[in-house]
Amino acid sequence: MNAVMPALTVADMMTTHLKVLHEDDSINAADWDMVVGEFRHMAVVDREHRLVGLISDRDVLRAQGEIPATVGRLMTRDVHTIPPTMPALDAVEHMLRSKHGALPVVAPDRTLLGIVTTTDFLELARRALAGHDVHQPHARA
Questions:
Q1: What would the DSSP string read from start to end of 47-60?
Q2: Rounded CA separation 32/124 (Å)
Q3: Sign (positive/negative) of CA torsion 137, 134, 20, 23?
Q4: How far is Cα 75 from Cα 60, in angstroms, rounded to an integer?
Q5: Cβ neighbours of residue 25 under 8 Å, at least 6 residues apart?
Q6: Which is nearest to 123 in space by CA: 98, 88, 86?
Q7: Per-residue pLDDT averaged across 96-105, rounded?
Q8: Rounded to whole angstroms, what are the CA distances from 86 to 3, 11, 54, 69, 89?
Q9: What is the C-alpha to C-alpha distance for residues 134 and 141, in angstroms, rounded to an integer?
Q10: 8-12, 68-72, 102-106, 112-116: the lowest-pLDDT one
Q11: For position 138, what pLDDT does the model report?
Q12: What is the CATH number of domain 10-129?
């Protein structure tokens, strides 16, 4: 008899050790952090660590050659967020429909808890295809 495995939630797979930015950070600093950390998206938080926006490598690329700008001028403020309790299947379906490459994971007060990205889902698929336990934490957690 097959044991039923519990459904994965976003909390089971999100990346939690995040490098974050603040609105008054320079785009040059954001660019540096993204290149060094190999990030395509970075969360922008306030002093209480609540999410206020998201900036992507595309935003930074578009700003090159312009007057030095701050992260707050270029970030996306209306960011779709998800709770950590959301089933991972629902999160990936949302990402596929909306074409989002990353979804910040927040508490009810918008405190940033983590982020889930297309890379997280590719890692999950790789582990599943290799026959590994997908419920074990992965390297980016």
A1: TT-BEEEEEEHHHH
A2: 28
A3: negative
A4: 9
A5: 70, 71
A6: 88
A7: 93
A8: 22, 8, 20, 35, 8
A9: 13
A10: 68-72
A11: 56
A12: 3.10.580.10
